[in-house]
Amino acid sequence: MMEIEELKKESKFWQVPARGVWEWAFMRVGFALVAWWSLPSMAAMSVLQEQPYPTGLANLIDLTFFADPDVYRFCYYLFCGALLVYVSGFFLPLALPLAASMHIGMITLYNSQGATHHAYQLVSLILLAQWLVCWTPYVWRLLGKSAIVLPVGLKWRDYMVWYSLQVIAAAYVIAGVIKLMRSKGLWIVQSPNLAVQLMKTNAQNYHDKLFVDVEFEQRAVVAQFMIDNPNVTRLFLGGGLMIELLAFLLLVNRVWALVVGIFILALHWGIDMTMGLNFKYQMTVVAIFLVNVPFWTGWLGKKLVGGKDDALLK
Known about the structure:
The radius of gyration is 22 Å and the shape is globular. It is mostly helical. Helix 4 (69-88) packs antiparallel against helix 5 and helix 6 (121-142) packs across helix 7. The longest helix has 27 residues, at 156-182. It has helices at 4-10, 21-38, 42-46, 69-88, 92-110, 121-142, 156-182, 187-190, 194-209, 214-228, 230-245, 254-275, 280-291, 293-305. Helices cover 69% and strands 0% of the residues. The chain has two domains: 18-138, no CATH class; 184-304, no CATH class.
C-alpha cells in the first residue's frame, strides 16, 4: 500500500493521473445527479418569454423556445436520457453534447434576464469540457491526422477528469482575479464594506417575505461584527481570496486536490453561514472531483488491510 508520499510520486506534479474504472463510475453518477439537480424547473423557465439582456449564445440565437412547456418537457426528457447514457459510460460522444447543449441553452436564457446567476455555470463548463475531450479523437481523424496515442497507462477518461479539474481551478482563480481587478488591488482592504452588501441582502429578503427570520438576524449580527472588527474581517476574507487565487494547486496531484477541495468547501460553508449565499452545486462538484471520497475510502481501506491499491487505478 502506498503511503501519502508514495501516492504523490505515483501522481507526478502537474501530470494527468490515472483514474480507475470504479472511480470514474462514481464520478459519472455523482456529476450526472448534480447536472440533473441544477437544471431549472419548468416553472422557472416558462416565465422567460424574452431575453432582454442577452448573454453568450443568446446574442446569436433566440433561446426563448425553452420557455415553451412542450419544448421544455421534450428537452428535459432528452437531457435525462443523455445523463442516463452518460452514467452507463457508453456512447459518451453522443450523450455529452446533448446534455451540454440542453444545460448551456437553458442556463443562458436564464442568465439573459438582466441578473446573471453563476450558480450553474460550473456544471455547464464541465459538461462542455468533457464533451470536447471525448470528441477529440474523432475530430482528429476527420482532420486526416494520425490517431492520437495516449501515454502508457492513461485512457480518455483520465483526460475527461483532468480537464474537469482544470475547469474547476480556472473558475476559482478567475473569481479571485476579478475581485482584485474590480477593486484595483484593494479588495482585502475594502472587504469590511461587504457589511453593506449583507444589509442589502437582508432588505431584499425582507421585502420578499415581509417578516424578519433567523437568517435576517444572523446576517445583521455578522454585518455589525464586520464593521466593529475590520481587521479580523480582512484576515478571514483575505484568506478566502487566497483560496481562490491558489486553487490551481489542485492540479498538482491527488493529495493537493483533496486539500484544496476541503479548503474550498470550508470557504463556501463560511459564506453560507455568514452571508446566506448558498453554493450547493459548486460544493457538490468540488466534493465529487476534488475531495473524491470513494477513491480515498478505497485507498484507506486497502491501507488498513495491508493490500495493494493498484486495483483502484484499473
